[in-house]
Amino acid sequence: MEKLTYKLDTFEGPLDLLLYLIRKNKLNICDIPIVEVLEQYMEQIDAAREQNMDVSSEFLEMAARLVYIKTVYLLPKHEEADALRAELSGQLLEYEECKRVASLIGEELSMDSFAREPAAVEPDYTYRRPLNGLKLLQAYYDAAGRHVAPPPTQASFSALVSHRIVSVASQIIYVLRRLWKDRNISYRALFVHKKDRSEIVATFLAVLELVKGKRVRIEGETDNPTVELLKAGERRCKAKH
């Protein structure tokens, strides 16, 4: 099935929107302030929803990714959060470079240009890098004297493939998608189709992360309260209090 995509205002995708926010606020793309960027990113998403615009799932997935990075920073150790932020910075730098190259190519192309099939080139397999004789000899000894272990049996992988692992980030996306249409839903409705224990636990943790990140709130004192999606303005009020 062909994948449907949408444009959010003038942004081609979530990376385009993030790059716009970083340039607008004159931020360091290698040291992104996640909290500030997340707040403005969600304001753009909420503004699109108020105008009855369809929001691509890619934008929602990036929102969940930013929320997860923000929540990881609340932990005592920030190694995972720093790695996730560095990965996002690398993607933004690569996307920015692709846009720059695409712009240069677009300036060069015209209706008068001529393209032809690439000419056949005979590959040259000659090794031209400098060789260190001692290192080459040591590599030979290592290869010749290395013990070849037998291939692993199927039983050695049974414990890994039989246990299904469900990530909290994937369930954050699931909860946000459920709330995006109706804004609120009963707490039990989030677990109706959850049969696997790992999936149930991951969904429960996802709700906690979203509450901690001030993305949703839970209303009601019964055993089946209501989970409600917070708007950008409500999140700012909760942060001030």
Report on this model:
With 241 residues, this protein is mainly alpha-helical. The protein has 2 domains: 1-107, no CATH class; 168-241, Structural maintenance of chromosome 1. Chain E (Arc Repressor Mutant, subunit A). Helix content is 54%, strand content 5%. The chain is built from 9 helices and 3 strands. The protein has a 3-stranded antiparallel beta sheet with strand order 1-3-2. β2 (216-219) and β3 form a beta hairpin. α2 (34-50) runs antiparallel to α3, α3 (57-72) packs across α7 and α7 crosses α8 (197-212). The two termini are 47 Å apart. Residues 1-7 have low confidence and may be disordered. This is Segregation and condensation protein A.
